[in-house]
Amino acid sequence: MTWGLSHQESYYQPRTLEKHADSILALASVLWSISYYTSPLAMFYLYRKGYLTMSKVVPFSHYVGTMLLLLAGVACLRGIGRWTNPQYIQFITILEDSHRIGTPEIKKKLASYNFDFRSWPVDFRWDEVTSRSDSRGISLLRPEPKHRSAANGFLHAIKKLPCQIASYIVAHTFGRRMLYPGSVYLLQKAVMPMLLQGQARLVEEYNGKRAKLLACDGNEIDTMFVDRRESSEPHGKKLVICCEGNAGFYEVGCLPTPLDAGYSVLGWNHPGFAGSTVSPRVPGGGREPRSPGSQPPCSNHQPLLLSQSWGENPGVLAPSPPALTTRPYCPLRPRREPRSPGSQPPCSNHQTLLPSQTQERTQESWLPGGLVTRTVRQYLNLNNGEQLCRYQGPVLLVRRTKDEIITTTVPEDIMSNRGNDLLLKLLQHRYPKAMAEEGVQVVREWLEASNAVEEASVYSSYEVDEDWCLSVLSSYQAEHGGRFPWSVGEDMMPEGQRQLALFLARKHLQNFEATHCTPLPPPAFRLPWHL
Fold first, then answer.
1. How many CB atoms lie within 10 A of CB 331?
2. Which DSSP symbol is given to 402?
3. What is the distance of C-alpha 59 from the center of its chain?
4. How do beta strands 124-125 and 302-307 pair?
5. Which of 40, 432, 434, 528 has CB atoms 3.0–4.6 Å from 489's, for a disulfide?
6. Which of 431, 413, 426 is nearest to 508 (CA)?
7. Which residues, other chains included, contact 466 with Cβ-Cβ below 8 Å and sequence gap of 6+?
8. Which residue has the higher pLDDT, 436 or 288?
9. Residue-wise pLDDT tens digits, 176-223
10. pLDDT for 392-415, tens place per residue?
11. Is residue 420 scored above 60 in pLDDT?
């Protein structure tokens, strides 16, 4: 497909042979995907009916072989149809030149086409081999204590083996796809027209530049960069890196919010999502790919991160370690913003994935230790709270007060919103003395307010002196530096700790009265507070 960089260009029109052959192959691909996801049930059914015998399997394998030969013939016919089409020959010439020469002029021509992103040449790559050593994930739970006796340890390992096997199977089959629904082929096929329209809009209306980043683990990441450094926009020199949710794509994700607010924007798709290759990682630790050290936009930008955490969500203006910016090359200001599967901006950030997935009942279920707990701990770790605590810069959380997805009870129960736990964990890590028992209590009371009037009432009831709080924090920073955690509030009276805790909570959390899928309006997109 050509996006039309000039009025002479038009959409690619396949000829009859290619069109029909491509339809047959697309149908075969969908049928294969359905067969793949339903294969466990199909195998169980065939086994119960007695069809898994040699006398039945051999004839069936003949049918399968014949179908594969027919599909290979259809693929050859599609190839003939393409090679007899002058438009396709022109595209292939440009693609080969981009791999061989790779000049900006050739890449500009290539950008006018939409095609299988696996064939797109790598624009930026991760070349720092030493960075592999620190690309480990963060443990969701503390490791279980080892047994002193080698014999006891061996027996314990044997006892746990069935559970470990079950966890491995769950994580690498339906577990990964349940956690990352955006990586499921059928979902991508369903939303592909919207993805193409969104991609075309970013290229045509915002002059977006598509690029492929080769991560250190071999993943090829599909990105879209909108550069406004030379524009008249007052925020054009600030780069917002948008990280989508577990079923989100940059083509239809949270990019519009910072774009409409006048920022430069970098969007990217997670591994296995749309153009990004491979599948979401499950080897343990829930790692995300790290982007190339040669990140193009970072050189003259002041970056921000609009993060759509995995799972469900609130929001954050701040970089999250598993995201593209794990190893920042410029100062980053985090902001985490909630967002829903594949449509508008905001998605989710939990303190951990576990509480929302187990919801009281399944945590200690039908397997020793809990199948869900064990699987999440070992293979599907999304501990955003601990990851966020590793970040030293300013952070702004955006809490959706009517979110129906990331609450563990009902949307009306705002205290069950997982964003509360994320805020408390962040503040307790950064200001442990101010967030002692008194501080935590008043922050919880403030978080329980269901609207702006109640919030203001709680805030004013403790007579928070903002000038005094700023003075205390500024004095501590000047004397001890800015690296967290801070011991500010250690020698304070309970009244001072309460004021400081409320002040910090209000600076780190922004309420947005909306449900899960409502996009954050550009006027509400603001920078995190910092001294």
1. 13
2. T
3. 45
4. unpaired
5. 434
6. 426
7. 503
8. 436
9. 888 889 999 889 999 999 999 999 999 989 999 999 999 887 889 999
10. 999 999 999 999 988 888 888 999
11. yes
pLDDT confidence tier of residue 303, bands split at 50, 70 and 90: low
Return the pLDDT at 192: 92
Residue type, 488: V
Higher pLDDT, 329 or 241: 241
Q: Determine the pLDDT at residue 130.
A: 45
Report how far residue 167's alpha carbon sits from residue 144's, in angstroms, rounded to the nearest whole number: 16
Give the mean model confidence (pLDDT) for residues 152-174. Answer: 82
The answer to whether the beta carbons of residues 436 and 497 sit under 8 Å apart is: yes
Strands 396-400 and 509-512: parallel
Contact 228, 262 (CB under 8 A): yes
Sign for the pseudo-dihedral over CA of 346, 348, 349, 351 = positive
Q: What's the whole-number mean pLDDT along residues 264-269?
A: 95
In angstroms and rounded to an integer, the radius of gyration of the C-alpha atoms of the chain is 26
Query: Could you tell me how many residues make up the chain?
Result: 531
Query: Under a CB-based contact definition with an 8 Å cutoff, are residues 243 and 307 in contact?
Result: yes
346 CA to centre of own chain: 11
Are 245 and 309 spatial neighbours (Cβ–Cβ below 8 Å)? yes
**Which residue bears the tokens 């307010």?**
449
HEC string for 265-319: EEEECCCCCCCCCCCCCCCCCCCCCCCCCCCCHHHHCEEEEEECCCCCCCEEECC
Identify whether the C-beta of residue 467 lies closer than 8 Å to the C-beta of residue 479: no
Question: What tokens appear for 245 in the block?
Answer: 């949710």
Backbone region of residue 4 per phi and psi (left: phi > 0; alpha: psi in -120 to 50; beta: other values): left
